[in-house]
Structure formats: structure tokens, C-alpha cells
Amino acid sequence: MTVLEYAPQGLRQIRSLVVLGDSTAAGLGDPLPGGGWRGVGPLLADALSGTEQVRFANVSFTGARMGCVRTIQLPQALAMAPEVAVIIVGMNDTLRSDFDPERIRADLEHVVSALKAAGTVVLTVRFHDHAKVFRLPGSLRRALRSRIDALNSVIDSVSAAYDTGCLDLDLLPGAYEMSAWSVDRLHPSELGHRLLAQGFASLLAERDCAIPNPVSLTCSGGRQVGTAGHVLWLIVKGIPWLWRRGRDLVPYALSIMLKSFVGPPR
Question: Where is the SGNH hydrolase-type esterase domain (predicted)?
Fold first, then answer.
């Protein structure tokens, strides 16, 4: 069956899938018993697999920003000639001092237009309010919220212009349940990744793509992390990560705080 043929029931049978993006796209938060990460990509690939396993590649990596997707990941994705591409990226941009919505827009538009020109069904995400699952001081919360709003505005406009399927995490059922998040409250847990995969599968079903194996929300196959593991992660990974990212975001938050004290210009 070629990529232009359809399943017997009149639905398009997807044969290839690629995931681009950052650490969430890479599967962080959904550890496997033997090591490594699973995440939304393999879960969605399993949902799309019928009599044959979907050809799947994940070109994402931790720390990736929108520019990384354009310059590094896009060529790898296009070489695969995927029928479906999932893009999860942008949060790392919001945490940096050189945050630039217009540059992000140019990079995302380039990525989406190139994939669409290759005949790929493109799926994107717009982000939720991280402050609802990750406690932050007021100034930091406002700083991050304003940047997420700007990022979502870019994603909305590009998604509308190129008719991509866009998964709104703020409206995703269960997205704000603590069980949907890993210990760091920044990456989805196994359940969270399953919610993402289910959401993307629904977007593909709306585009007449076959979903032979609907995504289950019953967690299985992942490695369970106990209390000791949570504490160890916080000490070894969590606090150093917050310190590195805080050095970029805190100055911006302080400027917001200062403006709130000074008031608007007369």
C-alpha cells in the first residue's frame, strides 16, 4: 500500500511517523525498565500500526529550541519522508534571555511549510499554564506566563496559516492532574504521555486517518519511580536545572516586578 492509498474502511492508513522537538518529545518522564525513555512518539506509533508496524523515528533531543528543530532536526525528518510529523517545542525558548517571538515564528513557519510541501500531515501543540503544576514566585509566574502567551500566539498563527492539527494542552482533559506529570512537574508522566498520544490520535482521526489501536490511558510498561527516586532527582537534576534556567528568566521577572512598582509611564 502506498502513502496515497487508504485502508479498506475508507480511512488513510499511516505508514510513517516522525517526532521533532525537545525533551518532552524525546519522552522524558516516561522511563523504561531497561533504561531510556518511551513517551508520546512510540505510543502514537503503536496506535497507528495496523497489520504492519508504523515506521517511526524520533529526531528530538533534550534542550532543543525552535531554531534547533529548523537547522538540525528538520533535514533528518524530511529524509524519512514521513506521512505524519509531530512537533513539540518552544518551552526552552521561553526560558532564555534572548526570547524572540518573531524569530520563533520564522523558524516554525519554515519547519511547518517544508513538511507540508513534502505532503506530511503536521501536528503541533500550544502550551498550558505551567504555573498551575509548577509552583513559582509571582514575578516568575507572570514572566513565564507572558512568554507562553507570546509563544502560543505564534503557534496559533502558523497552525492556522498552514492548517496543521494543533493540540491545546490547556484544554486537554486531565492535563492539570498531578498524576499527569513526572516528579519535576515539567515533563509528562507515563499517563501524561498517554494523554498526549491520545490527543494526537484524535487529531489524526479528524483528518480521516485510521487509528487501529486506540491509545489506552492504563499505565503499563513504564518504570515506577519511588519517593527516594523523586528526592534523588530533585537534588541531582531538579535544583541544578532550575538554577541554570533561572539565570535567564529571573532578570526578566525582576524587570516585570520593577515595572509593577514604578507603574506605567506618565
Answer: 19-195
Give ∠ CA 53-72-91 in degrees, rounded to 5: 90
Q: Which domain holds residue 140?
A: 16-262
Look at residue 183 and tell me if it is in a domain: yes
The DSSP annotation for 185-229 comes to SSSB-HHHHHHHHHHHHHHHHHTTB--SSPPP-S--SSPP--HHH
pLDDT single digits (tens) 151-197 = 999 999 999 999 999 999 999 999 989 889 877 777 899 999 999 99
Whether the model pTM is above 0.70: yes
Q: What is the pLDDT of residues 19-45, one digit of tens each?
A: 999 999 999 989 888 888 999 999 999
Cα dihedral: 226, 229, 231, 237 (round 10) = -140
Helices (H), 207-238: 227-233
